Amino acid sequence: GFDLNQDGLIDREEFAFCWNRWIKVIVRPNSALLVIDVQNDFISGTLNLSQCSAKQNGLQVIEPINKLLDTVNFNAVFYSLDWHPSNHVSFIDNIKLRKIHHTSTIQPEDAQTYDTVVFDGDTPIRQRLWPRHCVQDSWGAELHKDLKVVDNAIKVYKGTDPEVDSYSVFWDNKKLKGTSLAKQLEAKKVTDVYVCGLAYDVCVGASAIDAITIGYRTILIEDCCRGVDMDDMERTRNTILENYGSCVQSDEVSPPC
Ligand code: VGL
Ligand code: ZN
């Protein structure tokens, strides 16, 4: 409930907060779709989802995403690209270059692809080790050729710092640096953020959770996503739902009125 002042009225500042945060959002919704990392490497390249534990086929997101773009009038559409330099910290073949923290149970010489290790640094950080993927300007980093790219598409590049991975399209995994996305959403007065793409339990999930944290009404479109690991997908879904995000099917997404 509201705190009332001595005159029994709603505090002016509290009213302003509610007006900006909720009433405007209902009266004038503005939607953005984030299409996360629909890149060759995750579909038929080096980080092919069909080789991960959930054995999913990344190609299957293209048809529902294209259909969504044809039928729903989003106010803005962003495409993120995982865009790594060759010496990126997440590549298993670069592990010999890195110092492992003493609390990590895995040593560099024993590390296997998909293991999680703890890297040393100012703040030790957990890092999953991936096959070399989405190297800047390579074929694997290109958006899949059949993905519809709308007019006025806005591309956002992430994971460009060799020293820190970046799952979310908002911030790197250490939350040190943001991309331009948050500012662009603000400039477009976006209230509702829809998220889809690859991979559900990695970059899609991290982006959705950051969108919720910033305060956007956040909707993950499940049939437009494929993931790495079934248990992680379930955990991602539960985290989103527990934080008042939504998980829906694309036929439940209706054009904003
Ligand atoms: C991703 C693993 C490593 C993703 C990016 O886009 O979900 N997954 N880098
Ligand atoms: Zn990556």
TrEMBL record:
Gene Ontology biological process terms, A to Z: pyridine nucleotide biosynthetic process
Limits of the Isochorismatase-like domain: 31-236
GO molecular function: metal ion binding; nicotinamidase activity
GTP-binding recorded as keyword: no
Annotated pathway: Cofactor biosynthesis; nicotinate biosynthesis; nicotinate from nicotinamide: step 1/1
Leader peptide range in chain numbering: none
Domain of life per record: Eukaryota
Enzyme class, UniProt record, top EC level: hydrolase
Keywords on record: Hydrolase, Metal-binding, Pyridine nucleotide biosynthesis
EC numbers on record: 3.5.1.19
Family note: Belongs to the isochorismatase family.
Name recorded for this polypeptide: nicotinamidase
Organism: Diaphorina citri (Asian citrus psyllid)
Protein's gene: LOC103505402
